[in-house]
Amino acid sequence: MRVTISRKAHFNAAHRLHRKDWSFEKNNAVFGKCNNPNFHGHNYGLTVSVTGKIDPETGFVLDVKVLADIIREEVEIPFDHKNLNLDVPEFQDLNPTAENIAVVIWNKIKKRIQSDFDLEIVLHETDRNFVTYKGE
Q1: InterPro entries from the xrefs (predicted)?
Q2: Cα 86–91–94 angle (5° rounding)?
Q3: Which residue is catalytic, options 34, 76, 90, 120?
Q4: pTM above 0.85, yes or no
């Protein structure tokens, strides 16, 4: 029997959608106002879901406190109130789209949980725009 547990979190961050190898005009045509050279920000909402077998001794799939600590260490501390383009190493050469942010978060959390657990990340960039990533 496999069960899914979920934990919500949030972080606030600035970013700019921009490719260094494109001209300003091409970046502006593709990314529009999100290509603002002075950046823009979002209040990101995050749901992290872990699916696995219930441990018969504890009754947990994964202790939610452990999951909360992983999220804090891997996402909230490094991303919250940061400029993703300038302050987060993973985005030095990776455009910080919601899709790429979700994949980066998935990779950071996946390395901290049991390999037989499934992981799903849902990242809300706005109330209406969100991305789901479950791994490759």
Answers
A1: 6-PTP_synth/QueD, 6-PTP_synth/QueD_sf
A2: 130
A3: 34
A4: yes
